[in-house]
Specification:
5 strands, elongated, mainly beta, 51% strand, single chain
Length: 65
């Protein structure tokens, strides 16, 4: 049985989230956008592909500097 492809998120509201995919995506997205909708204003966070390793990849919260 093959190991799953793991996508990890670091920072922001998705911190600690881990998604398991059956296989690696052909072309991983360089940026993931997370939009949080609630009773107040829309909050948008951007996660950038940090590195890809044998088990998968990691997205880190973009610094808003």
């Amino acid at each position: 049985m093959a190991e799953p492809y793991v996508v990890r998120y670091v920072g922001g509201p998705l911190d600690g989230r881990v998604d398991s995919l059956p296989s690696p995506p052909e072309d991983p997205k360089s940026t993931i956008t997370h939009v949080h909708l609630h009773g107040g204003p829309k909050i948008v966070h951007h996660y950038d592909l940090s590195y890809a390793v044998e088990y998968g990849c990691e997205y880190r919260l973009r610094s808003e500097d």
